[in-house]
Write a structure and sequence with these properties.
- The protein has 116 residues and is an alpha+beta fold.
- The chain is 25% helix and 33% strand.
- It has a single domain, classed as 60s Ribosomal Protein L30, Chain: A, CATH 3.30.1330.
- It has a six-stranded mixed β-sheet, with helices on one face.
- The longest helix is centred in the middle third of the chain and has 18 residues.
- The protein is globular and about 45 Å long.
- The two termini are 14 Å apart.
Length: 116
C-alpha cells in the first residue's frame, strides 16, 4: 500500500494518506495568531477543510479529533465555532486537552484523522 505525503518538510508532513485513512498534523492559525480563540479556531478549521480536500476527504468523514487549548477557560469559545463547523450526525471521537503550544501566540491547535 502506498503512502502519500502532502506539504512534506524536513520535520513533518502536513497531510499523510495511507490506504483510505487521512492523517493531519496539528493545525494552528498563522494569520489569526495572537487573536481570539474564535478567530483562530475559524482559521484552523478552514485549513483542515483545505487539507482534507487535497487528500480526497472532507469533515463528514472525520474519525478522531484532538484539540489542544492553552487555557480551558476558552473551551466554550472554541466549541461555539466547532459546533457550527462539524458535520451534523458525523461528529468524530474527540479529546480536548489543555497544553502549552509551540509559540505563545497560538491559543488552539487541532489534529484530525479522517477516512477517505
Amino acid at each position: 500500500m502506498t503512502i502519500q505525503r502532502f506539504e512534506p518538510g524536513p520535520r513533518m508532513s502536513q497531510v499523510v494518506v495511507h490506504g483510505n485513512t487521512v492523517y493531519l498534523a496539528g493545525v494552528v492559525a498563522h494569520k489569526a495568531a495572537g487573536e481570539s480563540v474564535t478567530k483562530q479556531t475559524q482559521e484552523v478549521l478552514s485549513i483542515i477543510d483545505s487539507h482534507l480536500a487535497k487528500a480526497g476527504s472532507d469533515k463528514s468523514k472525520l474519525l478522531t479529533a484532538t484539540i489542544y487549548l492553552t487555557d480551558m477557560k476558552n473551551f466554550a469559545e472554541m466549541n461555539a465555532v466547532w459546533d457550527g463547523w462539524v458535520s451534523a450526525g458525523n461528529a468524530p471521537a474527540r479529546a480536548t486537552v489543555e497544553a502549552k503550544l509551540a509559540a505563545p501566540q497560538y491559543g488552539v491547535e487541532i489534529m484530525v484523522v479522517a477516512a477517505k
